[in-house]
């Protein structure tokens, strides 16, 4: 189990104050990493710190703002003493039919979900080089593989996450940096609870199609986070791994 330990490592999780991000941050901390979470809501950050325990830090940042995003990464490295792991989890969704989006809405989703991951990775790169290597985990989605009439910008951003992951993996392997994507299925979070309120019959369709017969939980994302951030995955890069209870393998 030594390969899965994260003692001495420092991790930044964007959107780490709730949902999937917090589930991953808790798992990284339990494996021994020092963890910084970043989010816009100070109250949620404070609550998340209680769940993470001693040694964790919280940063208030809007990842869609380039300057704030770069400063967030540098501040995490400063406060933790180093940076070895970046989890690009922050994201938003706006649900409409394609013809009803404004360009501003399209750009807002792409900026928050895709551009921010690129900027944060760029900012983390010199810290990883100084550390002798690093791990980046980008959070994609089932919408990286499937289409949905109500999620055109979200799907485009998450498909982009997979291609960004592959490009970074190719470019930075020489620097001992592994870059992978995780594609969560339908996970029970505040974001998907809103979706259930906005998309009629969504809950029933998800349960019916998922072989596991349930929605996932943020804690279900912890194992893959530890694996991809540990030395156990040193020869794995450029992948996009579904964590979905079998949703993506079942037809219909």
Query: Between the first and last Cα atoms, what is the distance in angstroms?
Result: 39 Å
**Major sheet description:** 7 strands, parallel
CATH topology: Rossmann fold
Question: SSE string, helix = H, strand = E?
Answer: EHEHEHEHEHEHHHE
Brief descriptors of the model:
8 helices; 252 residues; alpha/beta; 7-stranded parallel β-sheet; 7 strands; Rossmann fold
Structure notes:
The longest helix is centred in the middle third of the chain and has 29 residues, at 103-131. The chain starts with 9 loop residues before the first strand and ends in a 9-residue tail after the last strand. It has a single domain (2-241), classed as Rossmann fold (3-Layer(aba) Sandwich). α2 (42-52) links the parallel β2 and β3. The model has no long low-confidence stretch (mean pLDDT 94). By secondary structure, the chain is an alpha/beta fold. Helix content is 45%, strand content 15%. The chain contains eight helices and seven strands, in the order βαβαβαβαβαβαααβ. It has a seven-stranded parallel sheet with strand order 3-2-1-4-5-6-7, with helices on both faces. The protein has helices at 19-30, 42-52, 66-80, 103-131, 152-172, 190-198, 202-209, 222-229; strands at 10-14, 34-39, 57-60, 85-88, 134-139, 177-184, 240-243.
Short structural description:
The protein has about 250 residues and is α/β, with parallel strands linked by helices.
